## 1
Amino acid sequence: MSVVIRNARVLDPASGRDEVTSVVIGEGRIRSVGTPEAPAPDAHIIDASGLWLFPGLIDLAAWLREPGLDHKATLASETRAAAASGITTLCHQPEPEVSIDNSAQVNLIHDIADSLGKANVRVVGNMTRRLRGRQLTNMGSLRRAGCVGVTNGWQPFADLYYMRKAMEYAATHELTVFVYPLEHALAAEGFVHEGEVASRLGLPAIPAAAETVAVAQTLALLELTGARVHFCRLSAAGSVRLIRQARQDGLLVTADVAAHQLFLTEKDLVDFNPLCHVMPPLRSEADRQALLEGLQDRTIDAICSDHQPHEIDAKMAPLQQTEPGISALETLLPLSMRLVQDGVLDALGLLDKLTWQPAHIIRSEAGRIAVEAPADLVLYDPDVLWELSCQGMLSKGKNTPFARWPFQGQVRQTFLSGLCVHPDADRDRE
Amino acid sequence: MHSHFRPGPLPLSMQLTPEGRLKHLLTTEGLPASLIHEIMDRAEQFVTLPAKQQKKAPLLRGKTVMNLFFENSTRTRVTFETAAQRLGADVANLDIRTSSASKGESLLDTVRNLEAMNADIFVVRHEHAGTAQFIARYSAPHVSVLNAGDGRHAHPTQALLDMFTIRQRKGEFAPLRVAIVGDVMHSRVARSQIHALSTLGTGEIRVIAPRTLIPTGLERMGVRVFHELNTGLKDVDVVIMLRLQRERMEGALLPSESEFFKLYGLKPENLERTRPDAIVMHPGPINRGVEIDTEVADGPRSVILTQVTNGIAVRMAVMAMVMGANAGGGA
C-alpha cells in the first residue's frame, strides 16, 4: 500500500527543495516527489497542511549502552525515544564497557535493532581492542559487518605511533576515523573548562588547548596516512579555526558539534549542576560563538545529540564524582530548531546538518527526499509550543539540563522505511 | 520525578533562609556583608568572654554536631569540635575515609544514615569541590551544613576568622591593601578570602605567585596579580601567606622549595616593602623556610596564633547562628 503525503512544506537540503507539494511513498521508499498522478485507489492519503516534511534525522553519535551497560539504557528504550524525536538513524558509539571489537557485536546490535524496527542503528566500531589504544581490531571484518566508521572514543592511544598505524589500517579498509580530539596529558584530572568559572569554583579543568592540540596532531596524521577523518564534538574556537584552515588547504575532513554545546556555557556550572557535566566540557561564550560561526560557514558539517543516558545514581553525587553526558535524543531537534528561530541558520541550512551532511559522513543513502531514497521521513508541526518535562521523556536516561525549557515545533509523525514508527498506536498514546 | 534532575539553587540562595538568616555556611561568595559583620560581632563576644563563662553559655545544648571528614585534618576538626563543645553540643567525629566510603556506601546514603541519628549540624570536609553544597541540597530541612573545606573551592570559616583577625587589628577594610602570597591555584582558603575581602569592600586585593600557581582568569575575581614578591608587597597593610604543598614540585609547578623560598618566601627584608604596621597571617600549618621565614612567623608582625584563637570564636558564632540560637544577649 502506498502513502500520499499532501500539502506539506517539503524541505530537502540535498536538492535544496523547499516547497509545498506532495510526496508518495511505497514499499519502503520514496516513489515520487511533486504533484503526483492520480493516487492508487488504496493509497493512504495524509493531508499535511501546515506541516513540514523533511528527511528523518541522522544522529552521528548516540551512546546506546547495549550490550554492556543495559542498566543505563537499552536499544529498545532508546530507539523508541529516537523515533518519537524524528531521528531515524542512530550511530552507536563504542565505549570501554560496550566494546565493539569484532563483527559478532556489530551483527548482534543490527539484529536487535532490526527486530525492534524503531530506528536504523548504524555502528561505529573500535579502532583498538577494548579501546586500549594499542592492538588493532579486526577492522576489515568490522567493515564487512557494516560499521560506518571506527573510533577510539575518548580513550587515548598509547602514543602517536599507534594512532598513526590505526589510521593507516582504517584507511586500508576505507573506514572513516571518528576522532574525539583530546590531548590527555593536558586534560589530566580536569573535567570542566579551564576558565573563569573553574577558577572561581576551584574545579580541576581542561584547557581548550587540550582539544586544539589534538586537532592539529590529527590533521598532520591525516596528511601522512590518507585516512578519512571526522572530528567529533568540537568545543573550542581554536579547533574550528584549524579545521576551517585545513578545509581551505584542501584536506578532506568533516566535523560535528553536540547540540547542547550551542546553548550552554561554563556559566551553567556555577551551581555545581551535575546535569551540565559533559565531555568535552561546556566552554566559554566566545567558544560558543565560534561554534555557531563554524556552523554558518560550513566548517562544522553536522549537529548530533551526543546522547548519553544515565541511571539516576550516575548523577547523584558531588559534581566531580558524576559521570559526564546528557540524555539528548529528545532535545536534538527542538534545540536545533531554535537556531532557525534565533536566525543563526535557515530551515534548509539547519536540516542539512541533521540529515544530508551526516548521511554523507556515514555514506548512507538516507537523509534526503528523492525518488528511490528510503522513506525515512518526519512530519513536523512548526507551531506547537511546549515545555520539556523529565517525566515525559521516553529515553531511559532522564539526565537533561533542559527540563522546563520552552520549545516551538514538535514531531507529528515519523516514518522508517515507509512505516509509521511514531506515534506508536499501542504504546505512545498518552 | 526526582528533584535532582533540575538545575539546583545557587549557593547564595541556598545558604540563607527566605528571611535572609544563615542556614548553611558553604562559601563566602555572595554572603552579604551584613551577615559577615554579624558573624564577626558574635565572634567578638565569644573572644572577650573568659573561657569558663563560655562554658556556661550552652547555646547548643541538646544539639548534635557531626564532623564528616572525608579528608584528613586534625586542626580544623579540633577547632570545630572545641567550638561545638563550648556551646554545649554533643559532638561525633566521623573519619569517613576509614568507614563507609571504603565499603562502597554512597555519600548520600552516609548522609541519610547520619540524619537518622538526629544530627543537627554537619561539618563537612571533602576533597571534591561542591560536596558541601551537594549535602546541603539533599539533607533534611532541619540540618545545617558547614563547609570545612571542599576541594579547591571554599573554606569559609577559615576566611571569616581571617576577616575577623584583620578587623580586630585594622578596623575598616576600605583603606586596606591586602596581599595573598603563594599557591592560589590549589587554595580554597585564598578563594574564600578573596570573596570575603571583596564583599567587605577592601581597597585593593593582590595576589602574588608565579604563573604556574595562578588560576586562569583570576583577575575576573577582582584581584591584581603580581609575579614578583617585592613589587606586590609595596605598601600593603596585610600579608597573607598560603601553605605550599610539597607535591607541587612533582607536577612541574615549581622547580624546588629553595627557589620558591628565595623568590616568594616571606623574609624580614621583604617586610620592609610593606606598610610599617602591616600584619602577617597564615592559615597554618606553616612550612618554615618554604613559604615563611621563622623570624617572620614568630616575629612581632605575625598574628598567626591569634588566628587560631579566633578560629574557635568564629566557628562558635557560625554554629550559634545557623541553629538560630540567640547568642548575642545570652552569652
## 2
Amino acid sequence: MKVTIKVNGSQVAAEVADRTLLVHFLREVANLTATNIGCDSTSCGACTVLLDGRSVKSCTVLAAQADGSEVTTVEGLADGAGEMHPVQAAFHAEHGLQCGFCTPGMVMAAVSLLAENPSPTEEEVRSALEGNLCRCTGYHNIVRAVLAAAPALRERRPA
Amino acid sequence: MIPAQFTYKRAFSVDEALDLAAQDGDDAKFLAGGHSLLPLMKLRLAVPEVLIDIGRLHELRYVREEDGHIAVGALTSHDELSRSGLLASELPLLAHAAGQVGDPQVRHRGTIGGSLAHADPAADLPAVVLALDATLVARGPSGSREIPVAGFFQSLFETVLEPGELLTEIRIPKPETPARWAFQKFTKRAIDYAIVGVAVQGGSVALVNMGQTPVRAAAVEQALAEGAGPRDAAAHAAEGTSPSADINADRGYREHLARVLVRRALEESQARG
C-alpha cells in the first residue's frame, strides 16, 4: 500500500508491503538508521521514536498505522545548524551513554517525557524510562542527563 | 521479525469497520493500538488474513459521565485513562491501573478496548474492569448489545464477542466509595506482565493471572462481607483459582503471591477509605 509519513519535517512516500513495520520504513525507506532494532518485541525501547509528538516503539507500529502522521527520530532533533538538542547536549555532558546502542531510543523517550512533564523528579525520570533498557546498565548517568536537560528545555520553550 | 502476510484495511467509522469485518468474517481481526496483537502476529501465534485498522475511530475515544455511570470509549488509550480528571475523582482504581500498564510507549498506543477484547488473563485492565462490575457494549451487524463483564471472558484469549462484533464502550457504575480502591501487581521487571495482580474496589476483589481468565476472589469477598479483616479475608485468596505454571512461577508460588497481594491491597484500600 502507499504510505506517506512526514519524517523529521520531510514527506516520505513509498509503496510498501502491508506488514511493513514503522521501524523498517524509517531505516530502509527513509534511510534514517539511527533508530535501532533491539529486541523486536516491544521490550527494549531502542526503536523509540515520536509519533505525532508522543513516544512509541516503532517495532510495534505498522507503517500503515502511521500513514499521514508525523514522526520524529533522533536525527530530527538537532536544529540543522550543528547545534544539538538540549537532551542530546545533556547526554553528551553527563556521559549518558556507554556503547550507545540504546541512546537514540533513550533520548526520544526523554524528549517525550519532558514534553509531558517539564520538571520531573528523579523518581519520575526513572519511572518514565522503564520501557528503555541499557544493557551496559549505565542508568545513573542517563537519569542525570535527563534531569540536566529539563531546565535547559524549559528555558528554550518558556511555559 | 515481521508478521506473516495480511491485507491491511482501514476504517473511518464504526459502520465502515463493521462492514469490512462482515466481508471477511473469521479471517479478519480488528487492530486498535496493536500492542497485544502485533507481538502475537510476529510470533505466528495469531495469523489473521485481514487486519481492519480502527485506530482512527475518534468517535470511540472518550471518558464521560452519564446517568449514574462512567462511559469509556473502547479506543481510549491507557495514557488517556491515566490522565483523565474524571476518572481520577470517580474511578481512581482505573486511572491508576491504566498508568501501570507496560511502559509509557505502550500506554501511548494500547487501548482499554483492545486489552479487554484480547482477553489475556495476565493483563491488568481485564481484572480491574471485572472488579468494577462493568458492562461492555458491543456492536455487530445486527445491532448493539450489552454484556456484563462477569460473562465476557471465556478462556485464554477468548471472549463472547462474535466474529465481526466490535467492542465500543465500557460502562462502569460509579462506586459508592470511590476512594476504597487498591491495585497491586508483582512483576519481575517494571514493564513485565504481572505474575499475579489484584484489583480491589470496596468489597470487590479481582485477580490477574490466577487462571485462564481474570477471576473474582469470591471467597475473599464473602469473608469481607461477613466482617473479616484484611489478613483473615486474604487467606482465602487462592480458593477457586487455577493458576498456570510457567517460567516465572509455579502454581504454589502464584497462590502464595495472591494471598500476600490481596492482603496488601485490602489494607491499602481500607487505609484510603
